[in-house]
Design brief:
PyrdxlP-dep_Trfase, 17 helices, five-stranded mixed beta sheet, about 15% strand, Aspartate Aminotransferase, domain 1, eight-stranded mixed beta sheet, O-acetylhomoserine aminocarboxypropyltransferase activity, alpha/beta, 13 strands, 2 domains, cysteine synthase activity, about 475 residues, Aspartate Aminotransferase, domain 2
Length: about 475
Amino acid sequence: MSDIGVLTTFFKAIIDASRFYKNPEFETIQLHGGQIPDSDTRARAVPIYQTASFCFRDADHAAEVFNMNDPAFAYTRLSNPTIAAFEQRMAQLEGGTAAVATGSGQGAQFVAVAALVRAGDNIVSSLNPSFFQLIFSISMFVIPHHVCAHSRTVLYLAIWKNFGVSVNFVSSADPDAFAAAIDENTKAIFIEVMGNPSLVMFDIASLAEVAHNHRIPLIVDNTFGVGGYLIRPFDHGADIIIHSATKWIGGHGTTIGGVIIDSGKFDWHSGKFPALTSPYRGVVYSEKFGSNAYAAKVRTDMAFTGSCMNPFGAFLLLQGLETLSLRAERHSANGMALAKWLVKHPKVAWVSYHGLESNEFHQLAKKLMRSGLFGGMVNFAIKGGLPKACKFINSLKLVSNLANIGDAKTLITQPGATISVLGEEDAALTGITEDMLRLSTGLEAINDIIADFEGAFEVTFSEDEVVSPAID
């Protein structure tokens, strides 16, 4: 059976306005998008179709599915009704035309890029640790380079050199620096909507202009955009969005997942993307799928690499989506309150939060983010360096020390622990300092979060008299 033959597209992301009296808003789409109650059972919730495969009506029907003339479900590695509901809902929330779910956010990064490149190509990327993870995950055919002020190469992964694709890392948010890193073999610009963990922000519209001037797409990891509720990159000219759905979309730390969303607006007919415009086993994606050519190619690559989502995981993510806007507002409120409290604390060395007027990205955040909301991510450092930072983390009782963000529970971690992996110079380029603490504020009562911090400060600086600031 041919995998390309049973490719299932399910491009139904455009909201059917006739279902309602008006075009639904975000808060309504997060509940109703991608689903019409089943005509047989009338089930209100999206059912979990926990099955590996689906029956064909007859031999002729199977042939139509194999030839991609019928988008019927065939095999869950390609698509599944539960997964399709999640994909369509995400595409609707972000304003795209199609989406493809993956087994993890890392899988989404890999497939989003792999669909565009071949040996000898490169992409231009912002410099951030999460993309380093992507490089390690696809090291069988990627040879990364840093493109910094002196265009020096500092990292090589030379496995399978004959399949080499290079990554030109840019250490600046300046659009001109990205433009300077592009050459005739560049196939995309890749950025995070916010650097992780640096929280650096990028002017999406300016970078989209740079990309389009070079006839390449702008790919934005919008994980920190909270499912499109805080930031919608397509509104600023981005072409492809990816998410680690593990984070705010799921919101409860219960499952791993990723998603790739196609804007459907990029013109692939520049001669730079033969995988989309040339025949592949009798199929030309741009002709067969039109504006959804990229999404179709991504689905094929997702199926080939086995990086598919499972139905129960999709169900859990759908449950998370239903409260996404409410959680985003609480994350933002708690983030702002805690950041203001930390700024006043005598034992805090510095605080980075986009909602603070003193933050270097405050004005850009106001431009990109939903009015009055700045998310729940707070970076800070306490006085006394690494020893005090470790003691502080170890003294917390409510806040969890673990490697995740976007959870309903407040989480903290120390990015400086990765310095030994990246090296001090590369860590500095990504904005990581030894004393940095990364905080993902949760949904608990803000007074309880602050009480946990107060207690940890008292233990950490037990030899000093610590006077905690009042709560605003």
